[in-house]
Write a structure and sequence with these properties.
The complex is a heterodimer of chains A (207) and B (362). Helix content of chain A is 32%, strand content 31%. Chain A is built from eight helices and eleven strands. Chain A has helices spanning 10-21, 53-58, 69-75, 115-124, 140-143, 158-162, 182-187, 189-204, and strands spanning 2-7, 37-39, 43-48, 64-68, 80-84, 90-97, 108-112, 129-133, 149-154, 165-174, 176-180. In chain A, the strands form two sheets. Chain A has a six-stranded mixed beta sheet. In chain A, strands 8-7-9-6-10 form a five-stranded mixed beta sheet. In chain A, strand 7, helix 4 (115-124) and strand 8 (129-133) form a beta-alpha-beta unit. Chain B is an alpha+beta fold. In chain B, strands 1-5-6-12-11-10-7-9-8 form a nine-stranded mixed beta sheet. Chain B has a four-stranded mixed beta sheet with strand order 14-13-15-16, with helices on one face. Chain B has a three-stranded antiparallel beta sheet with strand order 2-4-3. The longest helix of chain B is centred in the middle third of the chain and has 18 residues, at 116-133. Classes of the chains: A alpha/beta (207), B alpha+beta (362). Chains A and B meet through strand 5 and helix 7 of A and helix 7 and strand 8 of B.
Chain lengths: 207, 362
């Protein structure tokens, strides 16, 4: 039995479909009820907040989980990153108002949910920045003059466009990854290995 | 006495006995060490953050985050001999964002003219230590020489090489393909895929280790796993190359121990000749540590009660008879004599002390 932490939401549902096609079904998960844990023959699944998936896996409450590369980069959990599922593709970008002119002599004010990613990115460029950590509605920050730029996930860029913002740099492409707990991998090698092989076949069409 | 001992306390005693039977001498150190020792070797430590303070004469001191460095500092090696030491110490390490943790650690070091025998003795003692803690263990072994020489074959900048090593540690094949666009990464990817007993993996490794360094390392790995075959049985010795320790300190064999039910490794060790050289010591060295603080997670059942029996008495009770009754009870179970029921204390039963004896109605 493999314990699986799935991210709540549309991405998680797509991922579950992949698991089911791989032969790791858990039919009760499709029932509309308030249960938290769903048991199948080979897997036991539960929905968790997407940003918490890595914590469940790192601490061994889940053997495997599916999480965005953004979360892996931000929290750097000590886990195996086994497979790029190529779902939920988007990119981590720097975005700002269309008429913004960067003055490299000034400290750049950066609003973001992803403080570590932003700090690392600008440290590599030797740029002095001031991080403003926000938990949501990041796009508001440059509009209200709270920050000069934002570092955030951009999928289609529509929200940005509607608010007269635009992405100016891409930091890193993002997609969903299958992660595994390092200890669980030692004791459930066969089961986790089969799951990965089957998922890999769906994603890349080979072994 | 054994019954009330916690798993980690029991482990400390049993492991000490094991290490002394194999001729390892105890090493005791003070809680503090000059900060300079750690500052010079900060990459060797898992975290750079150390608790520091000034002593009376103004020297900058640190609460020890590590024992190995202190052992090396105090060891003089002699050609043809090995110095064998074991320890059980608390170390202080940064943990997450929220500060420091005290970690109970036990382990051993073998320094000097370390040869194949010593290497295998240390690994087999690591395996035996895990077995003492729990039968359901796995010990994972890798060779830094194989990993580093395969990464060297790729044409990469120093930064990218460090990132590729990180990817090897996370079994992140997609990450390696992205970092090495246009290069043939088949060998390193195949290395990441290797996971299994020596007899399952060795034949797959031979075609990967074509350069002289890798070949030499592979032969060493094979010699070690062949020798350990009789000692670490039932497929508990696993080859896996995702153990990536700092290349500046470790060379040769590295290994990690896992126990079923615990989310991360409980033991970690390897050969660190490079660290010896950096600290101007002759000879080689190999050792491991076991992190005992995690073991409390293994005891699933919590204690059902604080004490087995609460014995209630009143101020008129005959103290001599009471004292005798408590001593009598304590031979069979835990007992707490009280004059009123303590609000927060739980017990299996409550007995009353009345008329010079335990009330028969209870």
């Amino acid at each position: 039995m493999i314990n699986v932490a799935l991210p709540k939401g549309r991405l998680g549902e797509k991922v579950y479909d992949m698991f089911a096609r791989a032969g790791f079904e858990c039919p009760s998960i499709l029932e509309n009820n308030r249960k938290l844990i769903f048991e199948g023959d080979k897997v036991c699944c539960f929905w968790v907040k997407p940003s918490d998936v890595a914590i469940y896996v790192e601490r061994g409450a889940a053997d495997v989980g599916v999480v965005g590369k953004d979360i892996i980069l931000e929290y750097q959990p000590d886990v195996y990153e086994m497979l790029d599922l190529k779902l939920g593709a988007c990119r981590m970008c720097v975005a700002t108002k269309k008429d913004f002119h960067d003055d490299p002599e000034k400290t750049l004010r950066v609003a973001t949910k992803f403080s570590r990613i932003a700090r690392r990115y600008y440290a590599e460029k030797c740029r002095d920045i001031d991080i403003i950590h926000l938990n949501g509605s990041i796009e508001l920050a440059p509009i209200l003059g709270l920050s000069d730029v934002i570092v955030d996930i951009v999928e289609t860029g529509k929200t940005l466009l509607e608010n007269n913002l635009e992405p100016i740099e891409t930091i890193v492409p993002i997609s969903a990854r299958l992660i595994a707990n390092k200890a669980a991998y030692k004791f459930k090698t066969g089961e986790i290995g089969t799951l990965i092989r089957e998922l890999n076949r769906q994603v890349n069409g080979n072994d | 006495m054994y019954r009330t001992m916690k798993r980690e306390e029991k482990a400390v005693y049993e492991l000490r006995e094991l290490y002394e039977r194999f001729g390892y001498m105890p090493f005791k150190m003070s809680k503090f060490e000059e900060y300079d020792l750690y500052a010079r070797n900060k990459d060797f430590l898992k975290s750079e953050r150390v608790i520091t303070f000034n002593d009376i004469s103004g020297r900058l001191m640190a609460l020890k985050p590590d024992v190995t460095l202190s052992i090396i500092k105090n060891t003089i090696t002699q050609p043809g001999c090995v110095r064998k030491m074991h320890y059980a110490e608390n170390v202080y390490r940064a943990s997450g964002e929220d500060g420091f943790r005290e970690i109970m650690q036990t382990g051993l070091e073998c320094m000097g003219d370390v040869d194949l025998y010593d290497l295998c003795e240390v690994i087999s003692l690591a395996a035996e230590s895990l077995r003492i803690i729990d039968e359901r263990y796995v010990i994972e072994i890798s060779h830094m020489g194989i990993v580093s020489s395969l990464v060297q074959e790729l044409n990469l900048s120093d930064e990218d090489r460090a990132l590729v090593l990180q990817c090897v540690g996370a079994k992140n094949k997609d990450g390696i393909r992205q970092l090495c666009v246009g290069q043939n990464v088949d060998k390193i990817i195949s290395l990441i895929d290797q996971h299994g007993r020596a007899d399952q993996v060795m034949s797959e490794l031979a075609p990967l280790c074509t350069n002289p360094d890798a070949l030499k390392s592979l032969q060493e790995l094979k010699a070690v796993t062949d020798l350990l075959d009789d000692v670490v049985k039932d497929g508990r010795l696993i080859i896996d190359f995702s153990i990536v320790n700092s290349m500046d300190y470790y060379n040769g064999i590295v290994f990690q121990g896992y126990i079923s039910g615990l989310p991360s490794s409980v033991s970690s060790g390897g050969q660190y000749d490079k660290l010896m050289r950096r600290m101007s010591r002759d000879g080689k060295a190999v050792g491991f540590a076991i992190y005992l603080d995690q073991l409390q997670r293994l005891d699933r059942e919590r204690r059902a009660y604080d004490v087995d029996t609460i014995l209630l008495y009143d101020e008129n009770a005959d103290m001599r008879a009471l004292s005798e009754a408590v001593r009598e009870l304590s031979r069979k179970c835990s007992v707490s004599a009280q004059r009123a029921l303590p609000e927060k204390m739980t017990s299996r039963r409550v007995l009353r002390f009345k008329d010079g004896g335990i009330d028969a109605n209870d």
